[in-house]
Description:
The protein folds into two domains: 38 residues, no CATH class; 51 residues. It contains six helices and three strands; from the N terminus they run αααβααββα.
Amino acid sequence: MGRDDVYKTIKNMTLEELISMFCTNKVEVVEKIEKVEIEDSKVFYTINELIEKYPFFTRYNINKAIQNGGLPYCFIGRKRMFSKEEVENWLEKETKPKKEKIKYDI
Length: 106
């Protein structure tokens, strides 16, 4: 069985099949998976990574969003970093459809 065949086999397996294949203590593996999901929320992006992840961002748009819209960021060393969770919350808040003004005919 070649490496590509093993990859295809694993790719088609369900999570339960993978867990039972790799260990006998399923609870321990599920806890590790949940820990990885929690740590994923602590991901920080640089400006270049933010542009890769969200293609509608440009350097100009990011700087304008920081100045006008309050795009959250922090400095780690001398680099401006953006928390994944905060950016997604900000995008959700900023992209909600705005209410239209009701025009009354008098």
